[in-house]
Amino acid sequence: MSETTAAPLQYRFDGPEDAPVLILGPSLGTTWHMWDRQIPELVKQWRIFRYDLPGHGGAPAHPALSVADVTARLLATLNGLGVQRFGYAGCALGGAVGIELALRHPERLASLGLIAASPRFGTADEFRQRGVIVRTNGLDPIARTSPERWFTGGFAAAQPAITEWAVQMVRTTDPGCYIAACEALATFDVRSELGRVGVPTLVLVGSEDQVTGPAEARTLVAGIPDARLAVVPGASHLVPVEQPAAVTDLLVRHFSTAWQPAFDASTGQLTAVAVSPMSPPRPVPVAPLPVAPLAEIAPPVAPPEPEGGTDRYDVGIKIRREVLGDAHVDRALSMADDFSGDFQEFITRYSWGEIWDRPGLDRRTRSCITISALVAGGHLDALAAHTRAALRNGLTPAEIKEVLLQSAVYCGVPAASSAFTVAQQIIQEETTPQG
Questions:
Q1: Residue 433 has pLDDT above 90, yes or no
Q2: Beta partners for residue 269, in sequence order
Q3: 8 Å CB contact between 112 and 202
Q4: CB of 64 within 8 A of CB of 73?
């Protein structure tokens, strides 16, 4: 296990020490054991590195709020172990880490497998809603419904032990780290960047996956140059668990034949890696290509800020969506016309882009103040939206209740009574598990 504060990732190695490293990345709510049935075959060629997400499988509970954060911790862990170049296969959130590696650290990545992955996982609202449910009810509702999302009905019925194992995996996850991982998926969107993925890529998906299914897989294949698609029949989201033999065979074939050349700065040449089915890759010098090697590709330069600094409207619309949710903002903007459009721009630019972006108060505190002010003014329609926003910003129902009780003292009992009615309905809607 890694014990450094810079890279608090829990990991294990399997396979010969002198073999090339192949990393297997887990899905949200799982542990490295989701790959157990691939290991016996994969260790014949590779040294397998598996890791747990923060707070999963007993790993240290240091929440990571973005895919980039998880990726940075993974790289720091590998740096500490002296692992510089590797193949990578990841499932769902683990797949997002793989895409992040390919986009930001291409010199480290030899080959890529994306399993049950997507360039954007649903909508931000869906994952923030899941975070609200966990914050209010704990992980039990998510755990009980996980088999429905992860496995086909036939598999779940025929394999009760595996189904129960899946439920227990989720139940033993740290709730705070699970919520943070939901936030990481909520903000992950690389649809416009897929064309820059430059490593050999296999996109693998279960034919019955209702979470990130064949449609999302085809989006990846359409965007990533020369990516290959493999659809595994009779499998849902956790396809490595449900169809282990098929997934193992596909991974062996991909990583045995598609290992991106590394760039040797000392010779100015690319070093190809040839892999036979029964032996680890060995370096073979090849002639340099007439293009810049992957190891020298730098991240894209951010566009300059417009004169006068950052456009506050762009900042405001981002914060407005994060706090109120895409559905609410889309509805408000769609109703704007020549008469009300200027007002929508005004509140986006100044309320959300200026005041909500100020560093002096965090969003939880701003939500408390906003709720109190809305109670005082009797603005119940806005109170409904901002009760949802408060839950998104991390307030618990118990904390919202305390804000309303405080408001009753200073704003009046009748105003607080109406506010309690509105807030109670919203909290019930937002914290009731779906399905």
A1: no
A2: 264
A3: yes
A4: yes
